[in-house]
Amino acid sequence: MIAPSAESLRQFKADFFQALSHPTRIAIVEQLRDGELSAGALIDRLGIEQANASQHLAVLRGKNILVSRKAGNQVFYAVRDPLIIEVLDVLRRYFFVHLNEVVATLKAIDKADKAGNGRR
Fold this sequence. Notes:
about 120 residues
């Protein structure tokens, strides 16, 4: 295996996250968590316009996040590698850890405010 340079690896990561930098593109990948779906099914599930879906799908394919196959007049999409789903799952866990920290801070502030008001 060829070891990439640190800079090329950073660029790969930046390109990957840039491809996922739109909520619709993340939603597309999440819809494909359990396997491939047709473009039409994705459009229906997400409630987006065909042209909009095509643009997002092209970005995801271009960055090798999704693969596609044609069957008749339909195009089916799938996540290229299950590791991509794992990345999104890690980010979900990170989000909830951060959210819990914020909630704990707000509760502490509220408790301090109530204690301060009780002394008056």
